[in-house]
Amino acid sequence: MSLDLDFVRSQFPALQTGWAFFDNAGGSQVLRPVAERVADYMLTTSVQTGASYEPSMKASEMLAQARARIATFVGAARPEEVFFGPSTTVLVRFLATAMASQLSAGDEIIVTNFDHESNIGPWLILKERGIVFKVWEIDPETLMPNLDTLGTLMSDRTRLVCVTHASNLLGSINPIRQIADFVHARGALICVDGVAYAPHRAIDVQDLDVDYYVFSFYKTYGPHYAVMYGRHDLLLELDSLYHYFYGKEKVPGKLEPGNPCYELAWGAAGIVDYLEALSGGKGRQAIEQAFEDIAVHETEIGERLLSWLRMRNGVRIVGHRGSDPSLRVPTISFTVDGHRPQDIVARTDDARIGVRHGDFHSRRLADALGLSPQGVIRASMVHYNTAAEVDRLIETLDQVLR
Ligand SMILES: Cc1ncc(COP(=O)(O)O)c(C=O)c1O
């Protein structure tokens, strides 16, 4: 099925402003059904969950429904396998804190130099407990991670590998299932940052066979809120982050200190409503169908920009040069000889096109690729972008680079 772009765009009121948004990897526009659900919850259901009076029971039921919908979104086996938090950065920090007592001095954690800092820095607090960190570096030629390199880093003390599903700078998709199999065969766990992947493709944590998976709703058409998946038996082993009477068995409550934000959890489930409306089905199958249609459209508009960039002298595409949807999402970064990224972006700003420059907190990757301190220009698209918007961006770039 092809994507009904008129329907898609009607669901994002901010797209009517005349701006062309190409900074979606920074933050996407919010769906009308999401905003309506947040307002609806706040105006009709603002009581504390967990009591026996009727409005409270209704609030508890709505939170349970929202959790179940998000569990379906990621393909979890059960709703309790997902827990909410304010951001990906915070959830990774939570996980690091909650894992502390199962790690001993001398145990090893592998982080990468190609992740966003959110799946690197928050882990490093464990250095205080004597945990040894190793860094899996990207192959600077292929711009992909290499399993042989990972193999040289892993030892019988390796407990965890933290790696991103898609790079928010390169747009490349990493082969997570293959990496998970490799890591598991060596007796370690894997924690995946799905922030740059979730807006573009269906996530299936069971098919990927990952242990932990995290992403933020505000880049996936929802509110400033985030969710982490963890395999149920692993969540049971984590330390409680809540009061002393929240024992280890209290999953996921022990991982949501202060309770989740009910209205944002309820609102975020509107993303699933939208995907169902888009594909005309229900549940998991509808989500997968919607993302298949999304991928086709994204590949077309991504190729439109990439093919123009490939033809320009002096332009370096930082990432895959082609638009193969199994290798990349349409998060497209580039540099231009003789032009500072900020100067180009100043011109796109004037043309009411939202593009961004910098390293987008993938600082270690930018350093490794010799892109610091200026970084790159990043045009990050999602499915609501149109071919006409891409042409508008190309025209503006054409004028600047003339
Ligand atoms: C790949 C990736 N991971 C993590 C984050 C951080 O997410 P949050 O702001 O929810 O902590 C970002 C934000 O840009 C990102 O692009």
- Please give the largest β-sheet: 7 strands, mixed
* CA-CA gap between termini: 39 Å
Structural class comes to: alpha/beta
* Number of DSSP helical runs: 14
Number of strands: 13
Q: Note the run of SSEs as H and E.
A: HEHHEHEEHEHEHEEHHHHEEHEEHEH
Give the strand content. Answer: 5-15%
Please state the overall shape, judged from the principal axes of the Cα atoms.
globular
CATH H-level superfamily of the largest domain: Type I PLP-dependent aspartate aminotransferase-like (Major domain)
CATH topology of the largest domain: Aspartate Aminotransferase, domain 2
User: How many distinct domains?
Assistant: 2
CATH architecture of the largest domain: 3-Layer(aba) Sandwich
- Poorly predicted ranges: none
What is bound: which ligands?
pyridoxal-5'-phosphate
Averaged pLDDT: 97
The first-level CATH class name of the largest domain: Alpha Beta
Q: Radius of gyration, rounded?
A: 21 Å
Strand order of the largest sheet: 2-8-7-6-5-3-4
Estimated helix fraction: 25-40%
Any overview of this molecule?
The protein contains 14 helices and 13 strands. By secondary structure, it is α/β, with parallel strands linked by helices. The chain has two domains: 5-29 and 297-390, Aspartate Aminotransferase, domain 1 (Alpha-Beta Complex); 34-273, Type I PLP-dependent aspartate aminotransferase-like (Major domain) (Aspartate Aminotransferase, domain 2, 3-Layer(aba) Sandwich). Strand 6 (189-193), helix 7 (205-208) and strand 7 form a beta-alpha-beta unit. The longest helix has 29 residues, at 283-311. The radius of gyration is 21 Å and the shape is globular. Bound molecules: pyridoxal-5'-phosphate.
